[in-house]
Amino acid sequence: MGLYHFSEDPSIRVFRPHIARTSAIQDEAFVWAIDDWHAPTYFLPRDCPRVCFWAGPQTSDEACSRWLNDREPRFVMLVEADWLERIRNAELYRYTMPEGSFRPAPLGPRGTYVSRETVTPLQMDPVGDLLLALSGAGVELRVLDRLGPMWKEIRSGSSLSFSGIRLLNAIGYPEEFRDPLGT
User: Fold this and answer.
1) Are strands 75-80 and 3-7 parallel, antiparallel or unpaired?
2) Arithmetic mean of pLDDT over the chain
3) Phi and psi torsions of 162, nearest 5°
4) pLDDT tens digits for range 27-79
5) Which residue stretches of 69-166 are H helix?
6) Contact 170, 147 (CB under 8 A)
7) Helix, strand, coil content of the chain in percent (nearest 5)
8) Beta bridge pairs of residue 124
9) How many CA within 13 A on the CB side of residue 122?
């Protein structure tokens, strides 16, 4: 399967369970990892807000035509223009994690795994040029001024599968991310 953790810190020797500072739902200490298919969602600086979407089993032909331009990228990633220079200059490292103690995250998004144990990574590799890594993984990157309007439209007006990461760092958060019902 392949499980990974991405960090801008190249010196991590062990990962200890902790409660993520960005989690609103987590009340238990974990070490987090991401599976191979979803790994490119983390080919960015840690705090960079991003919206990703892709064709899932429920996605209509109309949604593929409208959102994916009838093409089949692995997924589309939206980032804010203000982050582009930081993405270009970031140094990111991929830690390969041993799979033994990891289980699917009980409340996390698809592709996330957790371990309740301290984990020693198997190896660490630099990701390299993040824009080339995204392209090489079949990800279509789209740069926008603001993510909120597209997030609302994708969430409420499409049949796409989607993910939002670090949205609390996005311009206009939380106001621009609320749907008409205020959630």
Assistant:
1) unpaired
2) 92
3) -150, 165
4) 789 999 999 999 999 999 999 999 999 998 999 999 988 899 877 788 999 99
5) 84-89, 130-136, 148-157
6) yes
7) 25, 30, 50
8) 95
9) 9
